[in-house]
Amino acid sequence: MRLAAFLLRRLVGLLGVLLGMSVLIFGIIHILPGNVAYSILGEFATPAAVAQLEAKLGLNDPLPVQYWRWLSAMLHGDLGMSIVMNRPAASLIGEALGRSALLAGLAFGLIAAGGISLGLYAATHRGRASDKVLTLAQFVLIAVPEFFWAILAVLVFASWLNLLPATGYAPFHAGVADWAAHLVLPVLVLSFGLVAHVSRLTRSSMLEVLDSRFVLAARARGLPERRVLWRHALPNALLPAITVLAIDAGLLIGGIVVVETVFAYPGLGRLLVYAIERHDLPLLQVGMMVVTAIYALANFVAELLYAALNPRIRVAGAAA
Amino acid sequence: MPLSRRTLIGSSLAAATAVAVRPAHAAANVLRIGISTSLNTLDPMMVTTGDEYIYANLVFNGLARMREDLVVEPDLAESWSFSDDLKRWTFRLRRGVKFHDGQEMVADDVVASFRRLLDPAGTSPVRSQYDMVESVSAPDAATVVFQLTIPYGGLADILTDRQVKIVPRSATAQLATQPIGTGPFKFVSYTAGDRLVLARHPGYFESGLPKVDGVELRIIPEMSVKIAALQAGDIEVLWDLPLEQVKTLSARPELRVDSVPTASWDGAILNNDIPPFNDKRVRQAFHLAVDKKEIVELTLFGQGVETISPIPPSHPFYAKDIVVPKADPAAARKLLAEAGHPNGIKLPIILPVGRPVRERLGVTLQQLAKAGGFDLQVQRLPYSSFNAEVSGKAPLYIDGFFARPTVDTSLFPFLRSRGSWNERLWHYSDEAVDRALDAARSSADPAVQKKNYIDMQAALVANPASFFAYSVNYACAYRKSVAGVKTHPMKWFDLRNATLG
Questions:
Q1: Chain B neighbors of A159, CB-CB under 8 A
Q2: Is A84 helix (H, G, I), strand (E, B) or coil?
């Protein structure tokens, strides 16, 4: 029962966040300078043509009217049209989201597995040469932005070694090898910085746990080091790692915009950049809502996981 | 040749890895072109960007087409004739032309395509360019008649333009998603941010063409990645190469780089309506203050040529015999003093952020014009806000225009008093220029047109409207396996004869 109440409260909170974000997104988007009529008409945008197109697109209505029209259509399951491309936003975003999810899913798996295992390795080899080398590498990876790694990777693997395709995406049905080859560089670049981030954090939280009294007690009782590490220290050290992974899911979305642009990968990030450049507000609004929902859901799942691993949270949350 | 077991294993391993990691992409006979941005629209009537023009010219045909040497030739029309007063034009259509869905193209399709373009309630961005068309009619299935409101000698020429393509009258509603045309290639699929896929149109009206099985336009925004893709063979053609890359890539043995003159121009827009450029002497002083040749070197790395008006020096109508006064900063300062600015002029110059060549032009002008008494303060604004905030309002800013298919359409709206672009850019008015422009468009005789356009350029030197800096080159890079493609000054491609070696 307590768990159900906990879930319900979090779910209501989630909906509130989404509603609030819809107002915020709508507001920010309409403050952006520029005008979609100019981007549709391009170099042929005469004042008369602009005025006519704006009227046709309903851009002259008051903002609250436009907001309400958008929100109610969305609640009815109608995500609207991309006004620049004149295509349904739902299918554009759906296809792009699928491809981004593939990229993000693979990267997230790599970040979780790579980050935690490297962190554990570094913690158990504290102060040794391998730990120092890892630390240095981690700082470099965190400090240097993704677009640098992306361009470097293209130059080395595509241009110089000619091993992997420089850009783009190959559909699965066109051949598994081709499909996989197109994913290698984007996934690696997307994971680089975050693997370093997660492993830094895992290392320090593991070190903290290893220095704590209950680990000392376990060792004093003569338990094998293996068992101390895996059964006593690891579950406690993982809790902060999970929070960080949830935050990283958000950072991943930011990284995806950069990586998709450099590798010309047709995902949600590029679609958003396109929508911003062309002032395609309906497309941008829906895209932003999808990103918000993903981020909110990732946090929701992280909280559930946290609660499952650490009963104290659940109890405290229910009692509050 | 002896073949040891180790080399055998080694080479088959290498081959296996090569196959696994770097498989042959798609079909072998598909030409892949790297472009810069996603297409906004698949409706040929709505195209406004260079990337879209490529698509429109592969999938659709107009009544006439323009070759790479700028000669106009029949396309869907077989021939045309005009009345003596140049107000009634009759086009005879080619018979047996099939749309991609198998239907035959007839005169009703042509009429429907133009009515759609000219519809006052429609959204065509270029409608005003065809406002001399009073009516379009089809006396029979193979004849189309245009009735004009004014005598106009260039109608066949403007029908080569990018937005006036013939679409099936029964399928206009699906043009945004499943476009149908008569062109050498038919639409297969489009993924925004990724690629546009086209396949050979087997029923294309010129038998044996096109030669390749398909074309892919690959959308790659990042230039360094696009160049890497070209070098790796992921694409065969790199469209619109930045001019600073021309020399570097020309040195590559596997590539061919083509840089051709165009009628696209950049310039400093001088507002004739407000001070200081409402004074002719100040406009003359600005032209005397800087050396256009130096600007071409500094801004375009030599990939362009200085010009008087939007007519490029590569065009037969360019006034090559007119003497343009040499740069003379002292004379410029003297003129400024006569105009009431003894200490020179200090004013802002606005540059478009995101248009690197034009930004370079602005900075170059700012440096060079100092000697002539112009103290320019650089201000940078996003190009997307130019139309709303800068055009026709600021006294001085940098802009430029893409080549238009005819001299008349490149000049008349820009320099004729109260022309549509004139009113949005510089508000210029000169009787001699007006007279020459009117006379040129009401003749279909190239000799008469040439004489008038040369008069117009002379008048423009005497009384400058604005600062036309240069006609800019346009460059493409090709892998040497590509043959049968010429670089088109209008920045689209004719790929009917393209082959892949």
A1: 227-228, 231-232
A2: coil
